[in-house]
Amino acid sequence: RQRYTGLIERYRDLLPVHDDTRLISLGEGNTPLIRLNNIPRELGVDVDIYVKYEGLNPTGSFKDRGMTMAVTKAVEAGSRAIICASTGNTSASAAAYAARAGITAFVLIPEGKIAMGKLAQAMVEGAVVIQIAGNFDDGMRLVRQVAENAPVTIVNSINPYRLQGQKTAAFEIVEELGRAPDFHYLPVGNAGNITAHWIGYSEYSSGDGHSVTAACNYCEGHCRFAGAVVGSRPVMVGYQASGAAPFLRGHMVDDPDTVATAIRIGHPQSWNQAWKVREESGGWFDECEDDEILATQKLLAEKEGIFCEPASAISLAGAIRDIKSGKIEPNSSVVCTLTGHGLKDPDTAVKQSTGPMIKIAAELDAVKQAILDNIS
Ligand code: F0G
């Protein structure tokens, strides 16, 4: 059995790399799929809800899955610099993989609109951080224009290698469950990730099981893919924040706004692809208000001990809503992707925490009293 060295090595035969490609990896992927216990019980519903905790990737978000591929291919092609526009997580990931590769990362971020943890990452990892007086969509437009005139490789999800890396999340889920789930919920911003998951599920389901098993170098063919049921794909459901919901409006939105800054996007880059995913999977798009997003972030942390960033909580918020309304039948299996770690955005988390913060003298009696007053 090999040591785990990242998703390219693990799914090598299903990814566009050569035997002699130098892999740029930080051990990304292989994230836990956690079955929720307390939330379904309290809701009184008979649905298996799993969360795929992508916040446990090396830089704290799913972007690392795509970035390991994008930077590996950029380096293979001789590129000395990468560039992206970002609401924060892509920039943190690009900065880390560029550092690992020994190349330069340029990141364009909307001034004042990215969470503190993400900014800290890009800065400490040595990226050239360019704050623009505009939003993500402005940044994306500029990155597309500048890449035509300068020797830099774009590592936003319009880079096709990003989606190739991100499709591996679907492989891991199938491997873990022994089949595809009935429903898969994702937050949608640019719609790259929902597209990537659909590619992954589709490749898996069109395989005969053997092709997938043989491709798994990590376990030499002994992983749980071996007995997996092929041929099924989940219904894909994409949720957007109400203030940044072009898929709900049916057209691009010029002034997107939401507390979930990661998905503060009005001009999704994978517009056509995401509509196709919806159609092919029989899925739907829906939206959540900011207060529902934050309430779900807190619910997940308080009831299950899982801390994700606000944008990520929208997948679970949507699933809970659709379970309550009966859109999801009892006995279904649902996977919600938690795209980023809660520590990315400590300010929002602290602001909405109402738990007791007790200040006392540094004395035994005072501590005892505090315990007696607060024990549940
Ligand atoms: N969740 C988080 C935590 C994200 O950072 C993003 C996108 C998404 C969901 C949406 O994924 O764009 O593939 O639909 N963040 C990008 C960034 C835009 O710059 O970090 P998508």
Describe the structure in your own words.
- The chain has 16 helices and 10 strands.
- With 376 residues, the protein is α/β, with parallel strands linked by helices.
- The chain folds into 2 domains: 244 residues, Rossmann fold; 97 residues, Rossmann fold (3-Layer(aba) Sandwich), CATH 3.40.50.1100.
- Helix 3 packs parallel to helix 4, helix 4 packs parallel to helix 5 and helix 13 packs across helix 14.
- It is globular, with a radius of gyration of 21 Å.
- About 5% of the residues have low confidence.
- The structure holds ligand F0G.
Question: Secondary structure elements and their pairing?
Answer:
Elements: H1 7-10, E1 33-35, H2 38-43, E2 48-53, H3 63-76, E3 81-85, H4 89-101, E4 104-110, H5 116-124, E5 128-132, H6 136-147, E6 153-154, H7 160-166, H8 168-177, E7 183-187, H9 192-206, H10 210-215, E8 235-241, H11 246-249, H12 271-281, E9 284-288, H13 290-304, H14 310-324, E10 333-338, H15 346-351, H16 364-374
The protein binds ligand F0G.
